[in-house]
Design a protein that fits this description.
Layout (H helix, E strand, L loop, with lengths): L1 E4 H8 L13 E5 L3 E6 L8 E4 L8 E5 L4 H9 L6 E7 L6 E6 L2 E9 L20
Helix pairs in contact: 1-2
Protein backbone atom coordinates (compact mmCIF):
# COMPACT_ATOMS: atom_id res chain seq x y z
CA UNK A 1 0.00 0.00 0.00
CA UNK A 2 1.18 3.49 -0.81
CA UNK A 3 -0.14 6.48 1.10
CA UNK A 4 0.07 10.01 -0.25
CA UNK A 5 -1.85 13.27 -0.33
CA UNK A 6 -4.78 13.32 -2.74
CA UNK A 7 -3.47 16.48 -4.44
CA UNK A 8 -0.13 14.74 -5.06
CA UNK A 9 -1.82 11.73 -6.64
CA UNK A 10 -4.00 13.99 -8.79
CA UNK A 11 -0.93 15.94 -9.88
CA UNK A 12 0.88 12.72 -10.76
CA UNK A 13 -2.01 11.40 -12.85
CA UNK A 14 -2.33 14.77 -14.60
CA UNK A 15 1.04 14.09 -16.26
CA UNK A 16 -0.27 10.97 -18.00
CA UNK A 17 -0.45 11.28 -21.79
CA UNK A 18 -3.78 11.06 -23.58
CA UNK A 19 -4.81 7.63 -24.80
CA UNK A 20 -4.69 8.66 -28.46
CA UNK A 21 -1.04 9.67 -27.98
CA UNK A 22 -0.05 6.14 -26.94
CA UNK A 23 0.80 3.20 -29.16
CA UNK A 24 -0.71 0.81 -26.64
CA UNK A 25 -3.18 1.39 -23.81
CA UNK A 26 -1.72 1.56 -20.35
CA UNK A 27 -0.56 3.87 -17.61
CA UNK A 28 2.14 2.20 -15.54
CA UNK A 29 2.46 3.00 -11.82
CA UNK A 30 5.37 1.65 -9.80
CA UNK A 31 5.56 2.06 -6.03
CA UNK A 32 9.06 1.54 -4.64
CA UNK A 33 8.35 2.17 -0.96
CA UNK A 34 9.07 5.90 -1.07
CA UNK A 35 7.41 7.21 -4.25
CA UNK A 36 5.00 6.31 -7.04
CA UNK A 37 6.53 6.58 -10.50
CA UNK A 38 4.39 7.14 -13.61
CA UNK A 39 5.29 5.81 -17.06
CA UNK A 40 3.40 4.25 -19.95
CA UNK A 41 3.09 0.72 -21.28
CA UNK A 42 4.79 2.01 -24.46
CA UNK A 43 7.88 3.19 -22.59
CA UNK A 44 7.94 1.54 -19.15
CA UNK A 45 11.50 2.67 -18.33
CA UNK A 46 10.82 6.36 -19.03
CA UNK A 47 9.48 7.98 -15.85
CA UNK A 48 7.15 10.86 -16.76
CA UNK A 49 6.45 12.00 -13.21
CA UNK A 50 6.64 10.83 -9.63
CA UNK A 51 4.95 11.61 -6.33
CA UNK A 52 6.47 11.07 -2.91
CA UNK A 53 4.53 8.99 -0.44
CA UNK A 54 4.10 9.62 3.26
CA UNK A 55 2.61 7.87 6.27
CA UNK A 56 2.35 4.10 6.01
CA UNK A 57 4.97 2.30 3.91
CA UNK A 58 4.55 -1.27 2.67
CA UNK A 59 6.13 -3.54 0.09
CA UNK A 60 6.57 -2.31 -3.45
CA UNK A 61 4.15 -3.02 -6.28
CA UNK A 62 3.66 -2.36 -9.98
CA UNK A 63 0.52 -2.09 -12.09
CA UNK A 64 -0.43 -1.08 -15.61
CA UNK A 65 -3.93 0.40 -15.60
CA UNK A 66 -6.31 1.30 -18.40
CA UNK A 67 -5.78 4.82 -19.74
CA UNK A 68 -9.49 5.05 -20.60
CA UNK A 69 -10.35 5.01 -16.88
CA UNK A 70 -7.98 7.85 -16.02
CA UNK A 71 -10.53 10.67 -16.43
CA UNK A 72 -12.98 8.90 -14.10
CA UNK A 73 -10.30 8.43 -11.43
CA UNK A 74 -9.24 12.07 -11.69
CA UNK A 75 -12.87 13.28 -11.51
CA UNK A 76 -13.36 11.25 -8.32
CA UNK A 77 -10.14 12.66 -6.82
CA UNK A 78 -11.30 16.25 -7.55
CA UNK A 79 -14.35 15.68 -5.32
CA UNK A 80 -12.13 14.89 -2.31
CA UNK A 81 -10.15 17.17 0.01
CA UNK A 82 -6.70 17.42 -1.59
CA UNK A 83 -4.92 17.64 1.76
CA UNK A 84 -6.29 14.30 2.99
CA UNK A 85 -4.23 11.15 2.66
CA UNK A 86 -5.28 8.40 0.28
CA UNK A 87 -4.28 4.74 0.44
CA UNK A 88 -3.50 3.09 -2.86
CA UNK A 89 -2.74 -0.59 -3.48
CA UNK A 90 -3.37 -3.42 -5.94
CA UNK A 91 -6.20 -5.68 -4.82
CA UNK A 92 -6.10 -9.23 -6.10
CA UNK A 93 -8.61 -11.20 -4.05
CA UNK A 94 -9.76 -12.50 -7.41
CA UNK A 95 -8.95 -11.76 -11.02
CA UNK A 96 -9.11 -9.23 -12.50
CA UNK A 97 -6.79 -7.21 -10.34
CA UNK A 98 -7.89 -3.70 -9.34
CA UNK A 99 -5.93 -0.73 -8.12
CA UNK A 100 -7.91 0.22 -5.02
CA UNK A 101 -8.12 3.66 -3.41
CA UNK A 102 -9.43 4.48 0.08
CA UNK A 103 -9.72 7.72 2.01
CA UNK A 104 -11.99 8.90 4.82
CA UNK A 105 -14.74 6.35 4.17
CA UNK A 106 -14.59 6.84 0.39
CA UNK A 107 -13.22 4.16 -1.91
CA UNK A 108 -12.64 3.71 -5.61
CA UNK A 109 -11.06 1.25 -8.02
CA UNK A 110 -9.19 1.37 -11.31
CA UNK A 111 -9.18 -1.71 -13.60
CA UNK A 112 -5.71 -3.12 -14.17
CA UNK A 113 -4.22 -4.56 -17.36
CA UNK A 114 -1.14 -6.07 -15.70
CA UNK A 115 0.17 -6.54 -12.18
CA UNK A 116 3.50 -8.40 -12.12
CA UNK A 117 3.65 -8.16 -8.33
CA UNK A 118 0.36 -10.05 -7.84
CA UNK A 119 0.49 -13.78 -7.11
CA UNK A 120 0.80 -15.71 -10.39
CA UNK A 121 -2.69 -17.22 -10.16
CA UNK A 122 -4.26 -13.77 -9.60
CA UNK A 123 -2.64 -11.79 -12.40
CA UNK A 124 -4.82 -10.46 -15.20
CA UNK A 125 -4.85 -12.81 -18.17
CA UNK A 126 -2.44 -11.68 -20.85
CA UNK A 127 -3.93 -11.02 -24.24
CA UNK A 128 -2.18 -13.11 -26.87
CA UNK A 129 -2.43 -12.62 -30.61
CA UNK A 130 -3.88 -15.72 -32.24
CA UNK A 131 -2.47 -16.63 -35.61
CA UNK A 132 -3.62 -19.38 -37.93
CA UNK A 133 -1.02 -21.80 -39.13
CA UNK A 134 -1.07 -22.40 -42.85
Amino acid sequence: MAQLKIRDLYGLLSHAPRRRDLEQDGIRLVYDGTAIHLSTADHPDTVIAQASTCGVFTSSWEVTAYTASLDTVKAWLRMLDGEDLIDMAPFWASAPVLLAFATGGQHGAWPVIACPTAPADRRPAAVHEVTAET
